[in-house]
Amino acid sequence: MARAAVSGRLAWRVARLAGTNEETGTARTLVFDVPDWPGHLAGQHVDVRLTAEDGYTAQRSYSLSAPGRVELTVQRIPDGEVSPYLTDVIRVGDPVEIRGPVGGWFVWRPDSGRDVLLVAGGSGIAPLMAMIRARRLAGSGARFWLVYSTRTPDDVYYADELRRSDPGLDVTHVYTRLAPEGWPRPPGRLAPADFEDGPADCDCFICGPTGFVESAADLLLARGHDPRRIKTERFG
Ligand SMILES: Cc1cc2nc3c(=O)[nH]c(=O)nc-3n(C[C@H](O)[C@H](O)[C@H](O)COP(=O)(O)OP(=O)(O)OC[C@H]3O[C@@H](n4cnc5c(N)ncnc54)[C@H](O)[C@@H]3O)c2cc1C
Fold this sequence. Notes:
The chain is 20% helix and 33% strand.
């Protein structure tokens, strides 16, 4: 039984693009129809494989950004091999291959009951958004704090959804280059003060580029968070 479940996760499945949503000028959410998808936990990711007409293949990992369906949010990396295809070229109905779900460590389970601090840098919001959505879907009483760092307000993914009221969820935006007019915090990298109002006794999930994850983890450790309760995911 366990072996069948594992080999199912390792099998490549043909996924067809069912819909898209432009999150920012450089990022797009893609929803795929995947026959026989086994389901996933918030925080897990998939491998996506593209195959060119000459047989050349390229494979990258993308976090699942919602519970219950295969939804990915991809940031276009200039000169990247895979991400520009997913943000600019693929059309509804086109296939890709998908394998997963992958990862059992960087996951949030609705039955955990504990408070949670989420720290996102850029596209690192994707798996954390899956956790926020899973919490809402489950009607969980766990309190969530999200600290979300982007360069500018135009770089915020899921902006409308994060603005909507979600009792028990607190969202703090940190802008590193440009903040809205009158914003109380001057633009700059994450700093200890950004966590002042957050919880101390909680599970922590940090996701983003490697440098961001390392400096955010250092800040949480300096604040006294238990290292065993800090989970990180690096996008490279
Ligand atoms: C577990 C996991 C989950 C991930 N989830 C997501 C996700 O949800 N959304 C998402 O957009 N990406 C995610 N990534 C990153 C993704 O796998 C690719 O690395 C990214 O899309 C770039 O691929 P590419 O083929 O376009 O660029 P490549 O051809 O691989 O690289 C082109 C150039 O861009 C640089 N580069 C590669 N990745 C990044 C990056 N993330 N930021 C800045 N520069 C980079 C490379 O060093 C290289 O110089 C995830 C990575 C991991 C390991």
